[in-house]
Amino acid sequence: MRYHMLNKNREFARVYARGKSYVHPYLVLYVAKNRLGHVRVGLTATKKVGGAVQRNRARRVLRAALCEHLLPNAGGYDIILVARTRTPALKSGQVSAALARLMEKAALPDCRKAPRGGAAPC
Fold first, then answer.
1. For 50, left (φ over 0), alpha (ψ -120 to 50), or beta?
2. Which stretches of the chain are DSSP H helices?
């Protein structure tokens, strides 16, 4: 696994309170630094997104987009991706492009823009 998961409510609450948010019509990205030296990720989809099938699809699409862009050695960040109502109806390429834009705004290292020689393969 390339990253650890955020599991506890207090971890999510800390990122929401202290982190910075970046909004796109397809998803919301919350980022906060941590002192652990590795990336922790949380994926959320509320009931506003739809039923269980739509929420699971939204999380699956977000997870796939994140795996395309997140460097394994990105440093100490807590990242939360929140699905929005349009997310389950989108193709993974559209969500991936939206995540790339948000990661660029957040100044997070992107796997696709990293030099291949120095970084670990994605």
1. left
2. 9-18, 52-69, 92-105
User: What residues pair up with 44 in beta bridges, in sequence order?
Assistant: 82
SS3 label, residue 122:
coil
CA 65 distance to own-chain centroid: 8
Amino acid found at 36: L
Report which residue type is found at 117.
G
Give the length of the chain.
122
**pTM recorded for the entire structure:** 0.87
| Domains of the chain: residue spans and CATH | 4-104 (3.30.230.10)
pLDDT, tens only, 16-64: 999 999 999 999 999 999 888 888 999 999 999 999 999 999 999 999 9
Dihedral angle sign, alpha carbons of residues 73, 65, 77, 2 = negative
